[in-house]
Structures are given as structure tokens and as C-alpha cells.
Amino acid sequence: MRINLYKKLGLINIRGYIEDLKVVLCMSKYKELDEKLNKYLRLATFPVAVKLLRNPEELNDIKFLKKPEQEVALCQIFSYARYYGWTMGCEKEDNVCPLAGITLGFEKPHKLFEEGAFFVGRYNETKEAAKITTATMPKLPHGQYSAIVSGALNRVDFEPDLILIWGNSAQMMRIIQGSLWKKGGRIAMSTFCDGVCADTISNAILTDELQIAFPCLGDRRFGMATDTDLIASIPIGIVDEIIEGMEKTHRAGTRYPIPYQMSTPEFFVKLKKQLEKAKKK
């Protein structure tokens, strides 16, 4: 009723009002997710929302968007999001990391890549070994996506495909425990410790399953990943289940930060006895 009155008075554009309302509701939803994740994980940097885009013009619909002024390695836009809270968009032309371009399907795998030239003499001794490494790298279909956007989860206005979390091994433990609360079993991890976006983006999209990965050399050198970091990639469709699992296991007593068992220091007990004995002399 109030909206109709405003419309008659010409105070608002009804379509704009609805769009703004959608944005507010979307941001509120992901801010709540961010709060729940931080309640159980106490993260040092922001959880990062990630969305792949088929058409780069979709970037124009995203609020608070920043674009790199120079070419960047893909992992760097995630760092802007998790350290600064920025929403960063990257078209395929903005990315200079060849592995990222191939694994996300921005670029078509070329002959040199397929023959193992990226890894022979660097990570693998022989061309044959390098070709095996190359063949095992998860890759999205070429041309399916042409841009990517990432931002701090608590302020994005887009529907993410994935949530990326950088954290220590204890925080990863809690995410894994949360993911297994309902289904049980174990989490399998597959990596060759380079091109981490293949694990955290491509493989997560292809399998729709939780991925735990090591930051690669590029993420460490250019994306500011630390020595103690691991990365969890959570498809948006399973994040509520993982949070519920963390909540239930938290109630059961498995928590982060890990509560240490406080016991009486025996050294001080002995020292106290010696001091009391000395006082009596």
C-alpha cells in the first residue's frame, strides 16, 4: 500500500525499489552466512564468495565492483576480497596466469600444455610424467565461462557458486567434521600443489563437493597465502549442511579455537613444596 502511494507521488521507481530490495535481502543472507562461519571458525580473513560468469557484461550488474587496472593473476582478486573486503571482477583478458586461464576454460588448452611443457623440469623429471600431471588437472569446458567475480561474503550482492576459506589446519578440520556430520565417511584430497584454482574452483564446480587444497606457488607469491594456510572450497549448495554440522559438533564439544586441557603444572607443585620445606628450616 505504501509502495503504491509512493508510486503515485512519483517518489520512487517501483522497479528500482524491487531491485534494491533484492540486493538488500541478498546481502543480508550472505552476511548471516559469514557470521555463522566466523562463529565456528574465527577466521583471520574474510570468507570469499566466487561466481563464474558466462557473459562478462554481467559484471555491470554487480554493485561495489572493482576491476583491475592492470593484468593480474587470478589468485590476486581473491586476495583483494579476503584481505580488503573488495568485490573484484576479472574477465579472461585480465588474467595473466596461464594455468588459471586453462583450468577455468577461459583459454583452450594448447599443444605445449598438453605435452607437459608447463611442468617438465619444474615439477616432473620427464616429459611423460609431466603429461600425466597435465592430464589430471581438473578443467572446465572451454568457452563455458568468460569472467569471474569474487568478494567478501558479508557484502556481496550476487549469488555465489562457491565460498573459499583460507585458514589453518584446525579450521579445516572443523569444516571437514561439519561436512561429515550427516553422511559420515572420509574426505578425499587430490592435488599436485600447483594451479590451486584447478582444485578450488574447477574441481569444486565439476564435483559439487567440498575441496581442501594447498595454496600453490602463485597464491603464496602473488596472493599472499601464508605458510600455515590451507584452502576450503565449499559449493554454495552444501554450505548450510556444513554449518549445521559444525554447530552440532560444536555442541558435542569439538570446537575452535581448540580448548586446551588445563592441568596443574607439576614443576610448580614440586617448587612450592621445596619452598615450604626451606621456610621451615
Number of strands: 7
Please compute the radius of gyration using only Cα atoms.
24 Å
Our estimate of the beta-strand percent is: 5-15%
Strand order of the largest sheet: 2-3-4-1-5-7-6
What value does the average pLDDT take?
91
Order of helices and strands: HHEEHEHHHEEHHEHEHH
Number of domains: 1
Detailed description of the structure:
The chain has 11 helices and 7 strands. The protein starts with a helix and ends with a helix. Helix 2 (14-41) packs parallel to helix 10 and helix 7 packs across helix 10 (239-251). A 7-stranded mixed β-sheet has the order 2-3-4-1-5-7-6. The model has no long low-confidence stretch (mean pLDDT 91). The protein is of the alpha+beta class and 281 residues long. Helix 3 links the parallel strand 2 (65-66) and strand 3 (87-91). The protein has one domain (30-259).
Short structural description:
With 281 residues, this protein is an alpha+beta fold. It has eleven helices and seven strands.
Topology:
Elements: H1 2-9, H2 14-41, E1 48-53, E2 65-66, H3 74-84, E3 87-91, H4 98-103, H5 111-114, H6 127-136, E4 147-152, E5 162-167, H7 169-180, H8 196-207, E6 211-213, H9 217-221, E7 230-235, H10 239-251, H11 266-279
Parallel strand pairs: 2-3
Antiparallel strand pairs: 1-4, 1-5, 3-4, 5-7, 6-7
Helix pairs in contact: 2-10, 7-10
Name the features.
single chain; 281 residues; alpha+beta; seven-stranded mixed beta sheet; 44% helix
